[in-house]
Amino acid sequence: MSRPTPPTTQPASTSHLATGGSCTLVGAGPGDPELLTIKALKAIQSATVLLVDDLVSDAIVAHASPTARIVYVGKRGGCKSTPQAFIEKLMLMAVREGENVVRLKGGDPFIFGRGGEEVEHLRAAGVQVGVINGITAGLAGLTSLGAPLTHREHAHGVVFITGHAKPGDAGTDWQALARTARDAKLTLVIYMGVSGAAIIEQELLTGLPADTPVAVIQHASLPQQRHAVTTLGSLHATITREGLASPSVIVVGDVVRGVALASLDAAQASQALRVG
């Protein structure tokens, strides 16, 4: 009996049409170019067309080929944005023209980056899309402060959640989430939550103590990064007082206590060096 012919496979990072075009969604990470994966860097360098999100830093775009066509398709809450349907149309047109298209997205394409929508649209048009993951801001932000998102003693898991619901959507049930986070020892990482911080604070307080530690990190990993460590009961007041704005991530949970410990360790190490 003859063996069936094995199916043809393609590399995960890039997929081709008969025209020779390809499309890859690439996670640019939180902003620091040194946090790019090697695979992402290679994809950026080989692209003939880059469709670039607003939060991707110039230092990352600088890795593109000098001959590449770079199209900025920014999407920021409260700002003038490129319509999603137009972005998807540009991607499809460029692939059909035989271009090596890279959709360069801040953070990870599949964490609040509408990557899932873009993949669905292109697959429906007959285009198989590759995806290269990137470091998400929620991870990079707290890590930059010397604290983990999970910890055997303090957090058994982590929830990435958006603080910004699309029009017509009821959004997150913050009260239910607060109870779950309390009972299951979960860290909450809230994206796009600064503008709704007052409501988020009020709702989370129904299930979490007011003294629950919170960190707010703006421009994670970039030279202009700023942060504030506070408590859940003072979240909105701290954001207002410190003038923190988007793009920021809000991290809620006992793991944030590690930020203070990291600062203490750094101070102790500095003191030891001076004494030595």
Question: How would you describe what is shown here?
Answer:
It is a single chain. The chain is built from 9 helices and 10 strands. It is of the alpha/beta class and 276 residues long. Strands 3-2-4-1-5 form a 5-stranded parallel beta sheet, sandwiched between helices. Strand 8 and strand 9 form a beta hairpin. The radius of gyration is 21 Å and the shape is elongated. It starts with 21 loop residues before the first strand and ends with a helix.
Total strand segments: 10
Low-confidence stretches: 1-18, 266-276
How much β-strand is present in the residues?
15-25%
Shape: elongated
Cα gyration radius (Å): 21 Å
Average of the residue pLDDT scores: 87
Percentage of residues assigned to helices:
25-40%
Helix-strand pattern = EHEHEHEHEHEHEHEEHEH
Termini distance? 78 Å
Oligomer: single chain
Q: Figure out the total of helices.
A: 9
Major beta sheet, strand line-up: 3-2-4-1-5
Class by alpha and beta content: alpha/beta
How does the major sheet shape up?
Answer: 5 strands, parallel
